[in-house]
Amino acid sequence: MDLATLAKESARKGIQLLGTGDCLHPKWLDEIRELDEKNGIFYFKDKAEGTAFVLTVEVEDNKRVHHLLILPSIAKAEQLYESFKKYSSNIDSDGRPSLRISGEEIAAHAKDAEALIGPCHAFTPWTALYAYHNSLKDCYGDLSGYISFVELGLSADSSYADRISELHELTFLTNSDAHSPYPIRLAREFNRFQIEDMSFEDLKAAIERRRGRKPVLNVGLPPKEGKYNESACIRCYEHYSLRDAIIRKWRCECKGMIKKGVRDRVNELADCEGTHPEHRPSYMHLIPLAEVIGLAVHKSASSKTVTAVWESLLAEFGTEVNVLVDASMDELRAAKRDDRVVEAITAFRTGKVSVIPGGGGKYGVIVLSPEGCEGVEEEEPEREQKGQLSLFDF
Length: 394
Known about the structure:
The chain has 2 domains: 3-224, TIM Barrel (Alpha-Beta Barrel); 286-391. The protein has helices at residues 3-13, 26-33, 74-85, 103-112, 129-132, 136-140, 158-161, 200-208, 242-247, 262-269, 289-297, 304-317, 320-326, 329-334, 339-349, 381-391, and strands spanning 17-19, 36-38, 41-43, 52-60, 66-71, 116-119, 149-151, 171-173, 190-194, 214-220, 232-233, 258-259, 282-285, 354-356, 365-367. Helices cover 34% and strands 15% of the residues. Strand 14 (354-356) and strand 15 (365-367) form a beta hairpin. By secondary structure, it is an alpha/beta fold. It is built from 16 helices and 15 strands.
């Protein structure tokens, strides 16, 4: 998980701009300083060889809510480091520092540093805005108007978040933590923006939807696949309705804690029908290409069979995003790859997949239905679920 590997592998994925993460950590910032910088964007010397970076950091406030900051320069990162250091005991040891100040105070520091700020994985039942607050104002106080985006998290999409009217004017980001530098898992969720130049100012304008810059596509996992989609026990993963969880006082039969799911939390907060505002881009539900291939051919995403198909598709189409999002179905079929793989990609693009919901910290299970993927042979349910559950176990 070093910058050089991330740049190289993100380019294979099809990502042009990647958040650095952890940019307040002194040693990580030292590595970033070694890169070339132009207009707030950081490059390796040979720009053709990899993805560019923008400075980002995730911080935790005194209520354990996580906030994402996108910064314009190293000087501003140094400024934030100095202003946060007196409130943190782990800023020199943890890439995501814990701060003994509120969300509103963090927003004030971000504003002083000319950084963009918004809540991370806003609906997740741990360390999220709506896990501890009922509104943006509850968290950010008088600076709630400075918030420009909301990161949705793996268990929510636009159809969930747009049921909360206070979010209608904000841009939704579909980002995911990088648990691995390799395309098989890197950028499970990503955003597509319309910009003119690769610069911090154009990225900022796109997030704020100014000067013709704007988001044009959100890509993310189906919400039901998220590991906190439904209310469930964090020990045995038994699922509960909200009513039953309340009756049981949030304790499972196994004595484990029942954690409220994103779906139930959104239902509590919803104050409108969920009609999307005019500026909201389309949301495409996808999983990484290796996992699509694995589902289609009934193999582990890390198997030699899947890796061979994945490598051949990238050799033909250049990047994973090209295969999943941009190549036409005719182009994919003309490449003479396994018909089951092509039909599986079609199923995701057209929303014809079934999902057994996740909950309690366990990911959901995607099932390719015969009517959604005519080229996919049916497999025993137990075997299919077993293979899928291992895909995200990292």
